[in-house]
Design a protein that fits this description.
Length: 157
Amino acid sequence: MTVSIVADDSGWDAIPDLEKLARRAADAALAEAYDGSQPAALAILFTGDAAIAEINRQWRGQAKPTNVLSFPAPAGLPVPDGEPRPLGDIVLAFGTVAREAEEQGKPLPHHATHLIVHGVLHLLGHDHESKAQAKDMEALECTILKQLGIADPYERH
C-alpha cells in the first residue's frame, strides 16, 4: 500500500513519529476491511482548523472545522496496469482533534489513530448515516483499534 502523508500544521509535531502512526493505522484498517485484490494508495493531510474549515466549506457547504474529512476516489476510476488503486484522501485538523482528545480524556495519538481508521473506512465505502450503519462501522473500528492496542473509543464511562 502507498500512503502519501503531508503535515502542514506544526501542531502535529505533538505526536512523535506521526508518519509511522498514520501508516500503521491505515495498514490496520486496510488489512481488516479491504479485499486486497489490488494494491491501494491513499493520501493523508494533517492540517489545522482554518484549513479544514475552508475545505469543509468548499466541499460540504459547512464553514467550520471538523476533526476528519474523507474524500473517496470516484468509483470506476481507471487504473493503469501495475499501478495501485487510489482510494482517496483523508484530512485531519490538529486543533479539533487535540481538543476532542483532551475533552474525552484520550491520548492524542490514540484519538488521531482512531480518526485515521475512521477515514480509511469511509474511503472503503463504510458510512454511519443510519443507526445500523453506525453500529457496524463502530464495531469494525473497535476491532481494528483493539489490534493496535487502543481501547474502544465509544466506551461510555
